[in-house]
Amino acid sequence: MAAVIVARRQRRHNRQRRERIFSVRVTLFGMIEEKIIETYRLSGDAILEPLREVGADLDPVTRRSHAVPAMAKLLATLHFLASGSFQRTVAVSSGISQSVFSSALSQGLNTKHGFYVVAGFPKIIGAIDCTHVQLVPPSDREHIYRNRKHTHSLNVQVVCDSKGIITNVAKYPGSVHNSFILRNSALFSHLRDGKYGDGWLLGDSAYPLHPFLLTPRTFGVLKSRFRCLDRTGGALLYSPQKVAQITIVCCILHNIAKRQGIEHDAMDVEEDCHHRPHTGPPNAAGL
């Protein structure tokens, strides 16, 4: 018996402890600017802007030496938004959508002069249109997310200024028509109450307004820059509420890129939101 115990102790002594292997942290240092923009769709300086806004929320709560730092979390999120890949493993922080939204989309609609300079339209406060973002619907409400083309989506209403900066966003299930979204938005109430003076919105045939091509181009740039929003990246594998957050984050980052002068080619976006108006399906609440 003593010999067995001695043998076991000898084996434990000779057994080498497996060394823990940690992957190298993703950082911006050492990357050329072109590669940063290609990978994350933002410049190094532009990436620091949302980091300043939400860094405290993303910092690890543990003191362990290998806790994931805020920068790594942010870069992982940006890479996902840009590529649309690894949807099951990358989580988008709600802190980004909450903290940055309050500062980045509160630009107002004071863009009349810009539209007049660009297109000769007087008194225009914004261009409005809708785009669809594909998703996997909840089984108990599948029907309200089915759009005209029998896919499932969010119908996202966007208003932008003359420079393509997004100034207002509203999200509804994909079966809801453009005009329903507008009439049930805070933006409509502000227009009705004269908050923006005698200004006008420009839209396409889905609205009782004039046609204008600026917003579809903004969608093309937005979806080309952040491929997770485009159908070519596949449906987003999250709840509608999470897809709404992702959409807001992409709009915020689009604005940051525009303000930093980071341009991106627009892709052709085939929209499926121009269908017969209706009052909206049951429980078609904004997200």
Considering the chains and any ligands shown, give keywords for the structure.
2 domains; 4 strands; 10 helices; single chain; 40% helix; alpha+beta; four-stranded mixed beta sheet; 287 residues
Average per-residue pLDDT, rounded, comes to 75
Shape: elongated
Distance between the termini: 70 Å
Largest sheet: 4 strands, mixed
In percent terms, what proportion of residues is strand?
5-15%
The domain tally reads: 2
- Low-confidence stretches are 88-95, 97-109, 272-279
Radius of gyration: 24 Å
Count of DSSP H/I helices:
10
> Which strand order spans the largest sheet, edge to edge or round the barrel?
3-2-1-4
Could you tell me the number of beta strands?
4
- Level of helix content? 25-40%
Order of helices and strands: HHHHHHEEEHHEHH
Structural class: alpha+beta
Domain DDE Tnp4: 128-216, 217-255
Keywords: Hydrolase, Metal-binding, Nuclease, Nucleus
InterPro entries: HARBI1-like (IPR045249), HARBI1_dom (IPR027806)
Cofactor: a divalent metal cation
What do these coordinates show?
The chain has 287 residues and is of the alpha+beta class. The chain is built from 10 helices and 4 strands. Strands 3-2-1-4 form a 4-stranded mixed β-sheet. Helix 3 packs across helix 4 and helix 5 (94-104) crosses helix 10. The protein is elongated and about 95 Å long. The termini are far apart. The model is unreliable at 88-95, 97-109 and 272-279 (pLDDT under 50).
Offer a quick outline of the entry.
It contains 10 helices and 4 strands. The protein is of the alpha+beta class.
